[in-house]
Every structure is written in C-alpha cells, then in structure tokens.
Amino acid sequence: MKKKIRLIVQKYGGTSVADAQRMKNVARCIIRTPAEHLVVVVSAPGDTTDDLIARAHEVTGSPDERELDVLLATGEQQSVALMAMTIRSMGRQAISLAGQQIGIITDDIHTKARIVKIDTGNIRKALKSGQIVVVAGFQGVAQDEEITTLGRGGSDLTAVALAAELKADVCELYKDVDGIFTANPRIVSDARKLERISYDEMLEMSSAGSEVVNSRSVEYAKKYRVPIHVRSSFHEGAGTMIVEEAKEMEKLLVSGVTYNKNEAKITILEVPDRPGIAAKLFRSVADANISVDMIVQDVSEKGVTNISFTVNKSDLKKALAAVNKAVPEIKAGGRVTSDENIAKVSVVGVGMRSHSGVAAEMFEALAAKGINIEMISTSEIKISCIIRAEQTEEAVKTLHSKFKLGKVPVTDENR
Known about the structure:
This protein is of the alpha/beta class. Helix content is 33%, strand content 25%. The protein contains 11 helices and 20 strands.
C-alpha cells in the first residue's frame, strides 16, 4: 500500500516572529515538524502592521485604501524573506513567496478583500522540489493585479484557505496563547483550555469578540472541513482542535464567554415606520462595504420609530457618513447619534440547541450585578448583550462563574 504523504500548513503570528531570536525559535519548530510537505504562513513581525497604519495616518487623516494595501503588504514580505533565510541557515531548503506569487486571487475590495479562487501551482512546484514554502499571509491580488489585503487576522484565513486547496492533513495556527479558553484568562483567572471546540462554536466566539482565531478563517474551515489546531508558538504541547460538531459536545450547556469592546452603536431617531425604510437605510450602509452586527428597532409610536445598530469602531466614521446620506431619502425627522462606550458580552455553546433557560440565567446574573442590557441578539448557540464598556470585565467574570466554566477542566470526558 502506497504511503500517504503528510502535508501540514502552519501559521505564525506577528508576536512569534517579532525579533531575530523568536524567528530562530519558530524556524526550529518548523524543522522539527513531522511532515514530508510543509507550507508556513507568516504574519508581519511584531507591531509592524499597526506601525504602518499609524504612519499612513501621519500623512493623511483618510488614507487611500488602495495605497494602504500596498503599504501594509510590505510587512509580511519582510517576515517571509527573513524566515526563509533563517530556515536555510539551519540546513533546510526553503523559499519565500509574496502575495502576488502564492495564487490567492481576491475581489477588488481593498483592506478587506474576499478570496475568489486559489492557484497553488507555484506552491506545489516548490513542495515537489523539497522546499519548505514560506508564504506571506494576509494578502492576495485582485484579477487586475492590484495588491489587496484580507483584513485583520487575514493570515489565519490565508493558512486555512491554502490548507483547504492543498488538502492538508491539518492547519496549525500558532498563537501567543495555549489554545481556546472558556474566557479570556487575562480576565478570568480560572478560565480553562478546551481540548476541542466545534466550528460553529468557534465561529460564534470569533464573531462575538474572541480574537484568537479570525472568524472568516473558521467559516472557511467549516465549509471545506479543514481541521484546525490552535497551539502555542512559545512552548510545545497540544492546544485546541477546531473540528466538526460531535454529539457529545451538546452535553455542555455553555462552552465559553467572550466579549468585544471594538463595537460602536449608531441610533437614528424618528424614522418613518413603513415598509422599505429599513431596506433603504441598510442598503446605504452595505454599499459603503460596512458589516452590521446587532440591530434593534423600537416599538412604533405615531408612525415613527428609532433604529439602533452596531458596527466595528473602525467603520464608525464611514457608517455615520452612509447613514447621514440616507437620512434625507428616508425622511427621518430626528438626530443621528453614536456611542463608542459600549461592549458586547456573549455566551456560546452548542448545548443551547437542546437546553432552555440560558437567556434567563444570563440576564438574571447580569441584573444581580447591576449591569444593564441595552441590546440583545441571539442565535441557536449564542446569546449576546450590549452593555456599558466599563462593566465588561465584571460581566465576563459573572457569567463564567454562573455557568460553572471554571470549576473543572472542560475536556472530551466531561463535555
């Protein structure tokens, strides 16, 4: 029987390659990986991306997004070249490939492009020749050959997309944490590491504020059934596997508590309450390429209502411009207000599908601490609330304790 060739895709974040010593540590980890074929996706070193964005804002208050992509793509190009050099210095063959060479074709939406197709010809050729292929994460190229970037956390998406296309055995995402926890361990001292979590749970946690794994990469992994292993880049040991949902996962009511302080709320007062008005309002926001999270419409009084919705803080300025553009068209009679002092706290768990009462327990726990809920949204496996930003940590600790997530380690045996 012909032996199956093992192919692994790994991704290392900016913290992992922040300086020469860390690059050498990562190179040693790469070389020790038990795989015949290895593709390594690397982020920009350290805070390079943030520094480049800051430099752009030093020269203009509103950087052109096309030029911003050209600028940001240089961060990963530094990393891949340096990593390939480091691996070569340790006696292994390696080659770096920048965004234009890795075959990730995207749409033409700058700063948050979506993948259209992938041509892995260059990667396969390099793998066949025995090279460790070091790939620039976070970037691609539009069909008109314009440089594009995939948005925050885009290197995770690069790794998962390549793993899907190459049919890798596993996609390993190396982070500065040990895996996925029941809550942020920096806030909750008894937070526990999960051995496994479903795609759906991880997707909800990522969209609700968990920054460990990019939500679009989880969505991609679920679609193409790519197993993801989230593990630490600073020490050996198993992390958390993100996999398809198993029946035993439903035994645990709630798997984790997460939060997001990067949201802002926009409210439009005195909106005419008739068919088509909301459609026109949110079409204006969508045309500005802005994703809306939570939406609440008040009870109508005298033919008018108030509409509130949340967006990422980075999109607030553009969202307000889009809303103010739509206000005359929908004939809203009131003011447009915004609030950046909010946070979203969520509980997530596939067990919610078969258990009732989670919402009641969540609301009761928050009320007991005097934490007011301003907006609510739900899905089959998630409940999210908008609260005041300054109450975030107390809310997370309260909910983590309420659902007994820190009492015993959450493993496959007691899920």
